[in-house]
Amino acid sequence: MGRLHDAVLEIDRICQDRGLDSVKAKGEISMKSGFFLAIIFPHTPDDTEKLEKLRAAAQSVLGVSLQT
Amino acid sequence: MSIRLKMVLSIVLVFVLGMASLWFFLERSYTTRVDAAAASAIQGASTAFARLQQAEADKLSSTLIGLQSNAAFRDPFLAGDREALNAAAQPVFAGLKADHGVTHWYFESVPPSGTVILRVHKPEQFGDVLTRKTYIAASANETQSAGLELGKTAVALRVVRPYYGADGKLIGYMELGQEIDSFLDAIRQQTGDEVGLLLKKESMDSSGWAAVAKQNGRPDNWNDQEDFVLAGSTNEALSADIIKTDGLTAVGKDGKVFGVFEGDAGGLETRGAFPIMDAAGVPIGLMYIQHDISTVVDEIQSTRIRMMGAVATMMVVVLAVVLLLMNGLIFRRLNHMISDMEGISTRVAGGDYDVSYTPTGNNDEIGHFEHFYSDFITMVGGALKQLSDSMKKQ
Question: What digits encode the pLDDT tens for the residues B212-256?
Fold first, then answer.
């Protein structure tokens, strides 16, 4: 439990490091992955399929591979 | 393919179809106007011929009135002295022939004998019974009669007039005539057309025609055409064209246009013919016309090009205005709206639930959709915010 939330936190860090608008970036990643990142919490159950979609969307929008 | 491109292609298609339709219409109009110009040329030449014939008949009639008032002819005619009559008439006939083209002059008796008393133009021949239609018409009603008469070798305009003595009693008839060869040059001068005269062969004499041709030093052309013989033309090249023309027998009372041809000088000319009638209204030949229509054709072509240019310019302007209006009223607003909606939707998806969309305020189709989207995104943002809060508390 918490891997999806860790991935979202990693995205927040990347946006902060790059000075990006995190709301906009997370919105674009949400649209690409097919679920709202804003409603991912620490207690959100792990979901391998969602995690893979999230990684692919982050790669497409931010150009990085998530470590989570 | 974008809506904008689809609409541009549709308008271009309409433009092309419109220009093609206009071209088709102008092509039909061109053919109609050329046909009308050709028919008008034939009609004009026919009218010129009729007026010329009437003018020449009036001239012969006036001359007859003058001759009949001269006692130098009346007295020997009444006395039956042919030699004295001929002696008095010959000097006058020479003047009439030289100055006015008169080729025939007759003194004729009254019916029932109805014979030639004196042919001034051929005094050695006399005494034959008169059967020409103009004489029969004049003697039947004791009035003047005029018209064309086709003889064995030529056609002539004849005017027959009752001849009265000093006491007012009918003593005979006097007739003047002129061959109509000179009409060809006169019609050409009046109309500018080249003309040819064809005579019906059925009542003519081939051997007599050959003899006259030989006498005048020209080739015998009797067999050049089956039903007609060319009596003269204003142009050698036209003579050759006339000989090669088919369908001469199909020329009706209103004339016939044989078609439009390229002239020797490169211009366009129309050729046709109209019938000529004798004094009784019976067709005795054809007047063949060659009319230059280059000016008319150039004018029609110029009008066609100007019209095509004007319509094309107008359509391009309309196309440009329509595209500008479409761009300003629809596409620019659509692009702006799409950009805004994508940005707002993305922000909502990214967790900014307080974002809102402000419609432009236009009360049209796009404005209607903007209001709908504004309400919808506010509602979705609110719902997501409630959901997020509730999940956060779990």
Answer: 899 888 899 999 999 999 999 998 888 888 888 888 889 998 899
Whole-number Å distance between alpha carbons of B87 and B124:
13
The per-residue b/e assignment along B141-154, b for 16 or more CB within 10 angstroms, e otherwise, is eeebbbbbbbbebb
Yes or no: say if B42 and B257 are a contact pair by the CB < 8 Å rule: yes
Closest CA in chain B for residue A41 = B392
Residue A31 to chain B, least CA–CA distance (Å)? 7
- How many structural domains is chain A composed of? 1
Write out pLDDT tens, residues B277-320: 999 999 999 999 999 988 888 888 898 889 999 989 998 898 88
Given A29, A37, A41, which is nearest B392 (Cβ)?
Answer: A41
Q: Give chain A positions within 8 Å (CB) of B348.
A: 27
Find residues 35-64 of chain A whose CB sits inside 8 Å of chain B.
Answer: 36-39, 41, 43
How do residues B54-68 score in pLDDT, each as one tens digit? 999 999 999 999 999
Residue A68 domain-assigned (yes or no): no
Yes or no: say if B30 and B300 are a contact pair by the CB < 8 Å rule: yes
Give me the residue from A25, A41, A43 closest to B350, CB to CB.
A25
What domains are there in chain B, each with its CATH number? 54-181 (3.30.450.20), 182-293 (3.30.450), 299-393 (no CATH)
